[in-house]
């Protein structure tokens, strides 16, 4: 894309996903505000929507970059196409595995409890994404599950099934 005397490179996939998330958040916030301006109605929706929009502005800058001139030779060698395709397949495999693990999480969360299911999902998700340090796989998911479950128990009057908390 050319604007003025500069050429910009746009990562359209990331740009469209981030823009659709931001647009959905704005639409949801506007719908919630149209329904009621009561603080209980907007307690979670408005701060979350504003946080999503802030993150969108930070991510947007990464989706658009200035393209290098066509006459300037590349200093790094071109990556092997086969290696790039293999890496893309691995990435798609990770995504499919995360989707499957999330499906298992969604179907088992009521049976085994939000605390255990959240911990297991986080451990497996970190493992799929490449984390291999045992102490990180043990400590971070536990802290995350405790904060999320106790936080939701304090904020939302929904009886959450838990095993330990």
Automatic annotation (TrEMBL):
Q: Enumerate the UniProt keywords alphabetically.
A: Membrane, Transmembrane, Transmembrane helix
Domain DUF1468: start-end pairs = 20-155
| Stored InterPro entries | DUF1468 (IPR009936)
Q: Where is the signal peptide, in residue numbers?
A: none
Keyword set includes Membrane = yes
Instruction: List all membrane-crossing ranges.
Output: 12-30, 42-60, 95-114, 134-152
Can you name this protein? DUF1468 domain-containing protein
Q: What organism is listed for this UniProt entry?
A: Microvirga makkahensis
């Amino acid at each position: 894309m050319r604007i003025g005397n500069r050429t910009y490179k746009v990562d359209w996939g990331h740009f469209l996903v981030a823009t659709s998330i931001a647009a959905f958040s704005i639409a949801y916030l506007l719908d919630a505000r149209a329904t009621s301006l009561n603080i209980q109605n907007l307690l979670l929706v408005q701060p979350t929507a504003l946080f999503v929009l802030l993150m969108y502005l930070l991510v947007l800058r990464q989706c658009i970059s200035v393209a290098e001139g066509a006459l300037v030779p590349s200093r790094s060698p071109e990556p092997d196409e086969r290696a790039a395709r293999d890496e893309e397949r691995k990435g798609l495999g990770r995504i499919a595995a995360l989707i499957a693990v999330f499906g298992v999480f969604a179907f088992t969360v009521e049976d085994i409890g939000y605390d255990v299911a959240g911990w297991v999902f986080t451990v497996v998700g970190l493992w799929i994404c490449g984390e291999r340090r045992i102490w990180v796989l043990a400590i971070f998911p536990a802290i995350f599950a405790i904060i999320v479950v106790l936080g939701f128990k304090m904020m939302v009057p929904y009886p959450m099934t838990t095993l330990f908390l």
